[in-house]
Design a protein that fits this description.
44% strand; 12-stranded mixed sheet; mainly beta
């Protein structure tokens, strides 16, 4: 699964809208989750469905985020791949291919769920947010990118209490990626070097990293 091309798992077919008493509840929960958020650690299960709702892939891994701008996304099963954002660059390492791809984070902004979570910029600056009510036991929010060149057409977030439990991203081919986070730990202490990445010896490196402070 390569998020630079953003493939995606089928969205729940119909969202059930809640009563007017619940209007705004999902966004209030998301705001409480983001308020004071500095780090995240989570396990995840990711699924990818095509436009017909058929399951294409299922994978598992772990995610760590440090705001602003740093994350580590490791796929552990059924393949071993890794994304690391160090604040300047985003690195993608495919262990089986023995290949590393690097590009400036400014060019990959918003192209992964972890990137979306790592930003401290208000979501309203880049998305039109609407409530989708309560369904499957979660409060759902729909985020539509304001940038017409975004890598995805739609993002939906599921709030379980004041914790983000699931995220769905729909691309231009109507494919949907869903990530279910379990457990999701808010503001854990993370190792200082977890967002450092050095390509392993002997691997092919595609692209040039941006040096710190370079314009």
């Amino acid at each position: 699964m390569k998020f630079f091309s953003l493939r995606s798992v089928a969205v729940v077919s119909v969202f059930l809208f809640s009563s007017s008493l619940q209007a705004g509840e999902g966004q209030q929960r998301l705001e409480r989750f983001l308020n004071g958020l500095t780090t995240i650690k989570a396990g995840f299960v990711q699924t990818l469905n095509n436009a017909s709702g058929e399951l294409i892939e299922k994978s598992e891994g772990i995610m760590a985020v440090q705001r602003p701008g740093m994350f580590r996304l490791e796929y552990q099963n059924p393949y071993e791949q890794m994304y690391v954002a160090d604040g300047e660059n985003i690195w993608f390492y495919d262990r089986d291919l023995e290949q590393v791809t690097v590009k400036p984070q400014s060019e990959a902004l918003g192209s992964t769920p972890a990137m979306l979570l790592s930003t401290t910029e208000p979501l309203e600056n880049n998305f039109t947010i609407s409530e989708k009510g309560k369904h499957e036991g979660f409060f759902w929010l729909e985020l539509k990118p304001k940038d017409p060149d975004s890598n995805f057409d739609l993002v939906t977030l599921a709030m379980d209490g004041d914790i983000l439990r699931a995220m769905e991203m729909v691309d231009g081919f109507a494919q949907t990626t869903r990530l279910y986070f379990e457990p999701m730990v808010r503001n854990p202490k993370l190792a200082s070097d977890i967002f450092d990445f050095t390509p392993p010896p002997g691997v092919d490196v595609i692209g040039e990293p941006v040096s710190e402070g370079a314009e």
